[in-house]
Amino acid sequence: MMDTVLDLLPLAAMMLATGVVAGVLAGLLGVGGGIVIVPVLDTALGLYGVDPAIRMHVAVATSLACIVVTSISSSRAHHAKGSVDFSIVKVWGPAVFIGSILGTIGASYVDSQILSALFGGIALVVALKMLLPLDDVNLSQDVPRGIIAPVPPLVIGGLSSMMGIGGGTLSVPVLTLMNQTIHKAVGTAAIFGLLISLPGTLGFVVSGLGDPRLPVGSLGYVNIIGFLLISPVTVWAAPIGAKIAHKLDKRQLSMLFGGFLFLVSCRMIYRTFA
């Protein structure tokens, strides 16, 4: 029994450290922490012998469960600083929610390697957008309304739930391309994290029930041990990130976001083809 507990200590330490980094990044960048949680959990689960065919599914599902908690903390911190645009939330929110449901259904039918490739490829494109001097490049002067209004949030919700991220990774650069400030985009993205993670978590619980390959302590594809270790720490750390975000200028925040995403995307692309 003691040997089993000692064997789990490195994994527990890795999950706690993941929670700290994910929480700070959730508040700093509005990304919900999933962009950190997914690759780290994927690595940790691999070290503990989880079947590669479902490893990314477990990492994505557990990440979404953690983001339910993290996004609430991050949203409150950004709302207190007046950086949540509720007019955008009203227009995009329902489509983000529906997209998340559709993405979760799609993810349950694809291979773990495909999820890795999707994660790495999209993260790389977003990273390059944020790193390049494109801050003044806009696709539109405002968030589109009317008949095409649901298209961007549907795509963001669907891809985000498949990747196990809170939506900030995609919605922040998209909103900045629609002439929204980086700070307003980050704050608004935190709200989308809840709309993506809640239906995504429930969907992965249902789709993973009864799978004999699941690691110990799992409810469907959601690993409860990982959730219990990571989510409380992310809640504690998210306000720290939000405070840092409002001390940085627009370009500094964009460069920080892009640089981190570039490193993560390279790791996930390597994982896909290794």
Automatic annotation (TrEMBL):
InterPro entries in the cross-refs: TM_pro_TauE-like
Keyword Signal part of the UniProt annotation: no
UniProt keyword list: Cell membrane, Membrane, Transmembrane, Transmembrane helix
Membrane topology: Multi-pass membrane protein
Keyword Protein biosynthesis annotated: no
Transmembrane feature ranges: 12-41, 53-72, 92-110, 117-134, 154-177, 189-209, 221-241, 253-270
Pfam families: TauE (PF01925)
Subcellular location: Cell membrane; Membrane
Family of this protein: Belongs to the 4-toluene sulfonate uptake permease (TSUP) (TC 2.A.102) family.
PANTHER family per UniProt: MEMBRANE TRANSPORTER PROTEIN HI_0806-RELATED
Protein name per its UniProtKB record: Probable membrane transporter protein
Organism taxonomic ancestry: Bacteria, Pseudomonadati, Pseudomonadota, Gammaproteobacteria, Alteromonadales
